[in-house]
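Q: Hi! First time doing this. I have a protein sequence and I read that you can turn it into a structure. Is that right? Here it is:
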Amino acid sequence: MNPRIGFVSLGCPKALVDSEQILTQLKAEGYDTVSSYESADLVVVNTCGFINDAVAESLAVIGDALEVNGKVVVTGCLGARPQDIMQVHPKVLGVTGPHATDEVMSLIHQHLPKPHDPFLDLIPPTGVKLTPRHYAYLKISEGCNHRCSFCIIPSMRGDLDSYPASEILAQAERLLKAGVRELLVISQDTSAYGIDKRATAEARFPFLQLVADLSALAQSFGAWLRLHYVYPYPHVDEVIPWMGNEGLVPYLDVPFQHASPAVLKAMKRPAHAENTLKRIQQWRQMKPELTIRSTFIVGFPGETDDDFALLMDWLKVAQIDRLGAFVYSPVEGAKANALANPVDEKTAQRRHTQLMQLAQSISAERLQARVGTTESVVIDQLGRVQRRQVALGRSRFEAPDVDGHIVVTGRGVSKLAPGQRVMVTITGASEYDLEAKLL
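A: Yes, that's right. Below is the predicted 3D structure, encoded as structure tokens:
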């Protein structure tokens, strides 16, 4: 019997890709993965350490694994602060930071030797994936050059380190040949891709060439390419006209975080000097169907009533399609902790409620405008709603996990399969989801 590894992956899609790389190597070396602590010979926990709630969850999962199994290796963002882990759980076998497949495998080898030499035929063409077969995350870089005052990611993952374009394109092609039909490009700062390797005389931003090449590759397979974590730099304007039905889709995930110049300055956001509202309006003039997702922080230290009012007014004009918001919470090691005039919890929660109510109304209005249109939808899963057989899907305008569903009904729905693309007519809308009839 091969040695068995239990694996827990916490945190964001970037951490998920790290987990897939470790699991692929485990598979290559003949380890089996199991779904319970009890049946594992050793447990690996890939942690998140971005906010306090994530740290608490990571420490709790490590504690559960130790209690049930006893042999635990810890990796991931929280692992960049090993003292925080060892202080609570001194019995873990070892700790590594994020993006550390070799170090994790070395620890596993020490405590659970590999059964035999690697054989490449043990690995599926895509590597080991933690997403459904029809979509995959494609990470293009590690780290970040920005030093946002609320963020500790650079201290965990380091400065920007862009992967070679040839390796990214080769990985994308492997995924597409294996049946993936949606590539979700991720990093800490996607639109900064390649500036760390860029020659000073090079006129074109490497991000633009990479997106062009990935879009052409995806289009040749009839697949979608979706961009996440895109900072609104001026050169992003160039990719908007490339968006269409196949290849690069009309969707951008842009972490604006706030609209008040004073708050953005305190946050040390890289785009604080850009007129982001004007940029959004220009994008929509070029591509009216563009969907924009973003995240915002309320209750940041020093945020005044006027700052929050400015944010609300900005959102009414910007009409962000998909919005997530968080109440600011101090993170150990973040420079924002030392800022003056913290916002009390009651005020911050009230602002969060008001912001989400506005976001909900904007979403409902923009989704209602799609009623009556015909769209191509990818099926993610089948299920039942009030005893009706339905399929849950997404169009070019919805990303998996973070956006709403398109609930598809009609004759033939029960015969659909995850990953299948079908044409539907949008028949109804709620605050976050759509209803559709299968054509």
